[in-house]
Amino acid sequence: MNETVIGYATGYAGQSEEDRRGTAEFPVKQYLAELGLNLLYCDSMTKLQELLLSSEPALLLAALPVGANWEGWPLISDIRERGIVLPVMVVAFTGSPEDAAGAFAAGSNEYMPLPLHGGEFKARVANLLHLSGRRSAGTPLRVDGLIFDPGRRHVSRDGVEISMTPKEYELLYYLARHTGKICSREEILRHVWGYHFHVGTNVVDVYIRHIRQKVDRGKRKKLISTVRGSGYVLRAPDDGAAE
Fold it and tell me: What topology does CATH give the domain 141-239?
């Protein structure tokens, strides 16, 4: 399998030594390795956002004091809105029914209180990956001859599959989800790269150029257009796209 699991832990302040040891040292790395999964660990929201936006993890494993009140849920929601399948398992300090219900309502797909039992943990992870790997992130999306398969993260045009990097796919999928709408560079940076501030970069223009070469090059009908001073738009040629 050799897929990656991102592990995030927070909330150690005020915990007893036993609680910290139970949270930080439970042998999840070994359990995951037995499932063919690699664990990348982080303990800050900044690092978590960086990992989520730069990789394609099979699972996010979040060790939290209270699952429902985690500040990371808006980030998870944003990631999923881009068509990315991101199952989340919460490992909680407490096992109260109220906290479990709150975590599920916030966006968790699985919930386990400490201490963990290895056999049960591995079974739950395997089941979660089995379900998420076969559950589409959305119905196929089509713009003219451009067809997206969000579940597999594949895109094709006129029946020919287009090879794309993860970030190229996310950008093109974002434009397709907003077909006919002019998307500014700031909007794209915010929703595709996760930047919520002005960064003074031309990365959007560079990626659009690469995507155009893959999607529109050699085609009589051009799907991606530049709207000078405003941004970019993807729409069917019959809609009267600006050049």
Answer: Arc Repressor Mutant, subunit A (1.10.10)
